[in-house]
Amino acid sequence: MSSSALKQLLRNQSIWQAACRKSKTTSMSSGYRKLDQSLHYGGWPQAVLSEILLPQHGIGEIRLLSPLLSQLSQKPGYICWINPPFLPNATALFEQQIQIEKLIFIRTQTTQQTIWTAQQAMSSNACSAVLCWLPAQSLNREIRKLSLAVKSGNCWGFILRHYKMHTQPSPAALRITLENTTKLKRQLSIIKQPGGWAGQEITLELFPESLYWTNQAATDWPQINLNSKENIRPTCVTEHKQEVRAQNNSQIQSSPSTFNNHNLSMYH
Amino acid sequence: MWLTVRFPLLPLETLYTSEQITQEVKQHTENDYALQKAPQDSPQVVIENSVIYCLNQSAYECGIRSGHSLSNALALCQKLKSCERSIAQEKQRLRNLAVLVYQFSSTLSINYPVTGKNESIQDHLLTLEIGRSLKLYQGVDNLLSEIGKQLDNEKTKYQFGIGYNEKSARLLSQVPLEKSLNCLSRGVQHICDEPAQKALLQLICEQPIGLMEVDPATIEKLSSVGFRSINDLYRIPQATLTKRFGRPLCNYLMQLFDTLKAPIKLFTPPESFHQKIEFIDVIHQRAALSYPIKRLTKDLAYFLRLKQKQCQCLYWELYDSEKNIIGFDVLLSESNIDENIYLELTMLNLERYSLHAPIEAIALSVNQLYSLNTDNKNLFDEYGDFKQDAHFISKIKAKLGASSCYQISVHNEHVPELATQVVTETAQHFNESTETNKATYTYPQSPNFNYGGSTAIDFSHQTIPSRPAWLLEKPKPINFNQTSLLYQGKMKIISAQEKVTQYWWKKEIARDYYLAEHEDGTIYWVFFDQLKQCWFLHGIYG
Fold first, then answer.
1. CA-based torsion, A99, A104, A107, A110: positive or negative
2. 542 residues of chain B, pLDDT tens digit each
3. Cβ atoms of A173 and A194 closer than 8 Å
4. Which residues contact B348 (CB under 8 A, 6 or more apart)?
């Protein structure tokens, strides 16, 4: 091979060179130390399409990405959510320090539209991050398009797909599965990542506030009382419930994360 | 000092524009390059009431004259192309040219061809005062060449005429320009001073009476009496002229000789943009519509650039052969004036409409104009930063519909579904909201809650109440079997209750919210509705 051809080949960023430890790819901390250590670039890589595979929606994908989104939302550039499965809760995103006025949500009707929209957003160079929910079907050519778009737009691109796609190959450069394990911990495994070997498996605690969560006996839950429906005054129930809970679970009352304290102050 | 620009072939050129579009469309559809032959060279005429109204050089060479009937003309030349005159389009074109010339002088008047008792004008005219623009353009030669350049770009034929007032300039635009230029004082600049005015008057007096803008019957009357040149009229006392030939002629002459000031109706550039192109042949293909759309967007961009304005919405109307009108809006988010963006967005929008019949005409209007955003922008692109432009949003909106894009905002409401509000606004607001609308809601925040750099998150001091990241659009009823909640499996409650009661004065809401852990590990946000006595699923901790 001639030297010029070799040079041209080496200029390609997607070729990993063992000799060259410092990479040109920039990254941003994921906000989770364990994950940052497992990723070769020390965080979510820029201009790389990342694929997150989930067994179902709402197992912590927003928590996983929110530190990145919060950092990116402080800077210029929009954050696009394409085809989110549910309505995003502004209050929750606000709590996670994401500037919600930077977020743009796009509803699409067909997969073709989703891909087109994602491509537009990713290659626009006006979006710092693009999150795109894709259906559980083989979309290799489309994902290839998206990874090129992410590269040209130099943004953080994420596609979120179903867990069952993890056995199939995908052109996304970084592939991660997120699964439920026992007791609110999430198992994260890296199937493929740029800049080095994959196969890392880590356990992440995406809901640190779960420390303050305790099981409530079913007997303490509100009981359906169809007979006396008219007689129930919500305020009476509140008082009664609070007494019961105070006796049963004094730990929650003392802990700072009790929801009731906050709510009561809002009532007054 | 006044300048008149005369457009003798404007009716022809107006239709030629439509003709050109038809040609482009034909090339597109038939892919036939034989049609590329410049159509200007072939004999062309514009007819009005089947009488030749306006004709081009090659038609003239065939012996056709204006006033001939169409059948005579066709007898003289078989290849003759004829089009019916379209006054509305001519007026539109003249107004466009007026906007173009307006940059050279703000004192501008516009004249359409009329034949009346008081006045009879042959051609489309623009008359402008140039005495005050001479210093800026350093002489009349420079000014004329600048105006000429602009008009050449529009591919229009024109004649200039210079006079000491509006009427004289209009008259002298029918004689070669050199003659009036020679009359001007040759000093540092050409100035229309006292001797120049005398010389110009001399020149006017030499002209035949046929050039006067008075009604043809009067001219005929004058020539039958024996008047040949204007000089003959100049020597006759006014009172006699008025008695013999009427007040209009006398007034005209007084205005021509500058003894009576003529009222001038000044042109004001339009505040909004409206243009319509009618096609000679109908258009059958959607892609072929891009040619007229391109032309209109180009005109719009030119108009906006001249006015230094921007628009946020383009309104298109397509007229089809079944007399239906298809109208649609194209929303713009960018403040830049860019005809390519307008074209691209329009074509994307057009994809959403089904066209049932061939299109006969297309119109573009822009009613509301806003001053151009003159924010300071960085001279150099900051490396690694993202652009602050929302063009991609308008593109997506154009393709998927305006309601496909939304933002959310936090509202100071206790009821969760009211606290998050979906905002579907024009893309323009996306830009503004980042600056002005910065979180009017003050939510209690812990000072320690900070994700920064590479430090991992420290949730230990977190005191804020946590909300689920996903909300169901409508709370979903779930079952309770006295031991656990049932939703695609079993759920158990893992938190204390959070009471939400609100709106007892309107539609009462009384809910107890709990966090529930599903057996598969997902955490849901459920509530017990005190009023309906039923459990609902409302959110997911994503």
1. negative
2. 888 898 888 888 877 766 666 666 666 655 444 434 445 567 888 888 888 888 888 888 888 888 888 888 888 888 888 888 888 888 888 888 888 888 888 888 888 888 766 677 778 888 988 888 888 888 888 888 988 998 888 788 888 888 888 888 888 888 888 887 877 766 555 566 777 888 888 888 888 888 888 888 888 888 888 888 888 888 888 888 888 888 888 888 888 888 888 888 888 888 888 888 888 778 888 888 888 888 889 888 888 888 888 888 889 999 888 888 888 888 877 667 888 888 888 888 888 888 888 888 889 998 888 887 666 566 665 555 777 777 888 888 888 888 888 888 888 888 888 888 888 764 444 444 443 333 333 344 333 333 333 333 344 344 455 788 899 888 999 988 878 888 888 888 888 888 888 777 877 888 888 888 888 888 899 998 888 888 999 999 88
3. yes
4. B395, B398, B399
CA-nearest residue of chain A to B463?
Answer: A257
Q: Where are the beta strands (DSSP E) in B391-497?
A: 405-410, 420-423, 470-480, 485-486, 490-493
Instruction: Evaluate whether A156 touches A28 at the Cβ level (below 8 Å).
Output: yes
Cβ atoms within 10 A of the Cβ of A251, count?
Answer: 10
Indicate the length of chain A as a whole number: 268
Does the pTM surpass 0.95? The reply is no
**Most distant CA pair in chain B, distance:** 119
Identify whether A261 is part of a domain.
no
Residue type for B387, please?
K
Chain A residue nearest residue B520, CA to CA: A180
Q: Which residues of B are less than 8 Å from A257 in CB distance?
A: 462-463, 465-466
Of A71, A182, A241, which has the smallest distance from its Cβ to B451's Cβ?
A: A71
Establish if A160 belongs to a structural domain: yes
- Nearest 5°: phi and psi at B361? -150, 160
CATH of the domain at A107: 3.40.50.300
Residue of B311, B244, B245, B248 lying closest to B274 (CA atoms): B311
| Contact residues, A window 78-97, toward B, CB-based 8 Å cutoff | 78, 84-97
Distance CA A68, CA B457 (A): 11
ipTM of the complex: 0.77
State the DSSP H helix or E strand holding residue B166, giving kind and residue range, or none if neither.
helix B166-172
Distances (CA, A) of A226 to A230, B96, B99, B275, B504: 9, 76, 77, 68, 21
Contact map slice: A 38-67 vs B, CB within 8 A: 42-43, 55-63, 66-67
Alpha-helix residue ranges (DSSP H) falling in B176-313: 177-183, 194-206, 216-225, 230-234, 238-245, 247-256, 290-307
Q: Where are the domains of chain B?
A: 92-256, 273-404, 470-540
Query: Quick one: tokens of B196?
Result: 């120049």
Closest CA to A129 of A22, A16, A27, A14: A27
How far apart (Å, rounded) are the C-alpha atoms in residues A48 and A39? 13
- Tally DSSP H helices, then E strands, for chain A: 9, 11
CB contact under 8 A, A155 and B451: no
Contact A106 B453 (CB under 8 A): no
Residue A217 lies in a domain: no
Instruction: Look at chain A and report how many structural domains it folds into.
Output: 1
Q: Does domain B273-404 have CATH number 3.30.1490.100?
A: yes
Q: Which domain holds residue A243?
A: 24-212+225-254
CB B119 within 8 A of CB B171: no
* DSSP-assigned letter for residue A109: S
Out of B443, B454, B540, the one facing A94 most closely (by C-beta) is: B443
Contact criterion met (CB below 8 Å) for B330 and B349: yes
Nearest CA in chain A to B459: A208
How many degrees, rounded to 5, is the angle at CA B78 between CA B72 and CA B79?
125
Question: Which residues of A are less than 8 Å from B433 in CB distance?
Answer: 101
